Every structure is written in structure tokens, then in C-alpha cells.
Amino acid sequence: MFTNEKLEKYADVLLWGIKTARTEKYKPGDIMMIRFDRSAVHLAEILQGRLLDQGLNPIMRGGLTPLMEHHFYGKSNGKQLAFIAPGERALCENLNGTISLLAPESLTHLSDIDPMKIGKAAVARKFLRDILQKREDRGSFGWTVCMSPTEKLAKQAKLTMRQYTNQIVKACYLDKPDPVKEWKNIHKKAMTIKKWINGLDIKYLHVESRNMDLMITPGEKRKWIGISGHNIPSFEIFLSPDWRGTRGVYYANQPSFRSGNYVEGVKLTFNRGSVTGVDARKGGVFTEKQISMDPGARRVGEFSLTDRRFSRINRFMANTLFDENFGGPCGNCHLALGASYSDTFDGDPKDLTRVKKKELGFNDSALHWDLVNTEPKQVTAVLRSGKKITIYEDGMFQL
User: Fold this and answer.
1) What is the per-residue pLDDT for 382?
2) pTM for this one?
């Protein structure tokens, strides 16, 4: 586990992340929620103290245990699944930030639960996420998330606890004298890449690997964003494409743990923007039910590329936060089914109404599921002029 010194550094990085992720500066009296699993309680204690010192109002909220989650999905009827506690809406309408500290004690505890019940609960709570998204668009809300090591995570990743912990330490630059300085440097380098790629007039992207042949259409009024403090760690540069232009085959060679289920070797076939075929070595039934959650669950909400020069993650970590930022020898791309990110809109967020989102092809869903590919790949940008440019190869942006 982490030493006290590493926990203090982790807190430094998270506070940098939450401040970087919000466009408005935090001020005394702002409300900050800290969500934490049991194994992350010591980090939560440090963050609570730091926030109080800064004059903020921290709200501490512990996560459900695996048994609590199983009870909820296994025993709840339809009304209980959709129940929203009094005050939840008001809290979301006034919350200024959330720091989530993940430390899962189980990854497969919901494998015997009907995925449709999990989906029903997610759909019922989507309006709360929409409230926070609107507040974030206005600059009054920010968020960041990190992970602490647990025995179950290490076991599923086939690592010892020491190895797993060291991967987190390396990934977050906690082994450096000044981790925040390292993150500021990465943030600056990423700005150069984003400026370059946003300057290209891209008609569509062609993603090719051994098992992939996929077309992605960025769409109108889009911008690439990333390395913004939202996730710790995060090395991805991404956009929310026009879902209607997606076609071809996407393959996730990285396994995925989602909603207490395990999925491996997922191959998705897209036609006219929607998934029309699913094949998976493991978890195929779960995958089918997840993408049947709502109409948008079969569509693309995000396309992302990670430059291996930034990421020090070189092992499967059994957690999407780390796996979607895998560096290794070839970097990675990942595709998310479901909800899009409105902050990839290249314009005033206030102008991005529900009608405008639909017009521009921003996807809407209660689902957001990142599926990762770490194969050697080439990503070619076909410009509106007809010119072709390789923007990503050998795990690196070709700036």
C-alpha cells in the first residue's frame, strides 16, 4: 500500500487535477464531495483536511460495499431501482466539485445480476448526471477521479500488491520529487498536440490494426481535448465524434470489468453509426444487454488516442481508468459506447442545447463504456481537401 509520503503526493496531484478540470477558480464556501471506497479512506482523510484548510465545504460519501451493491440490484423491485433520495437533485444543483477515490473490493460480484436491472438504475439517475454536465459547461462544477490498490484488483491483473501499487505510483508520477510539476509539463506538451490536430480540417479518420478497420467521423464544431485534470492518471486525447458516421469493425483486445461483470475479446460491427453485430470471447450476453440499455447505447460517444511517450502504464490493471491510458510499446486507442462529452463542442457551451446536440450528432445515453485496443495501429486523417495524413502510428502522435 501507499506510504504517507505517497498519499500526500497523491493528494497534491488530485487537487491540481480538480482545479485544472474546472474553468472557474474555486473559492471559500464552495461545496466539494469526496466519494471514497473503504480502502481509500486514508487518502479521503488527507483530502478532507486540505479542503477545510482552503475554506471549502467537503461532503464525505462512502461507496457501497460489494454486498450492498448486490443487495441493491438483486433485491430491488422496479420502483426501488429507480428511487432517488430526497435532496439528491438539490445537491447536484449546488455541488461545485467531486473527487472520486476508487478502491473496488470485488470486480465480478454482480455477474449473476440481470444487466437490465443495472441499466434501469443507470437510466433513472441519468438526469443527475445531466445536471452536473450543465454546471460543468458553465464552469461551476469540476471533477476528478483516481484509484487506490486493492488485493482484488491486483489478483485480477495478475500482479502482486507491491507490483500493482508501483504501477499506480509510476503512472501518477508519485515517485518524482514534485509530481505536480510533472503533470504540468505533460499538460503543456498535450496542448501542442491538441493545437496541431484541431488545426486539421478532418473529414473522417481511418483506424487500422490487425483486427480493426474502422471509420470515425469527427463531425462539425468539434475539438480534441484531454489531459485536463479530470482523470488521474490521464494521457488520452479524445473527441466525441458524430456518431452517425461510424462504420466498420472495432476490436477491444483489452479485457473489461464493468458493473460487476467480465468481458473479453469484444468485436463490434458498425453500420450507419450503430452497432449491428457483437462478438465476444467472454461476456457476450452481458454486452448485448448493456448496449440495449437505451437507443444511444449502440452508438459511439468518444474516440480516444493515448501517446505512449506520456504514459508509464505498461501492465493490464483490470480497471478502465488505467487501462484506457495504457502506454506500453504501442499506446492505445479506445472507443466508448454511449454518452458523448459536450466539452468537445467547439463553441460556447451555452449554445449546445439538446436540439443542437442532436443536429450535430452528439450521442446521448445512460451508458458510457470504454473499450480499449492496444494493438499496433495506424490512424489516418482524410482531410476535406482529399489529402491523407497519418496522425498516429507506433503509439505516438505524428506531429
Assistant:
1) 98
2) 0.91
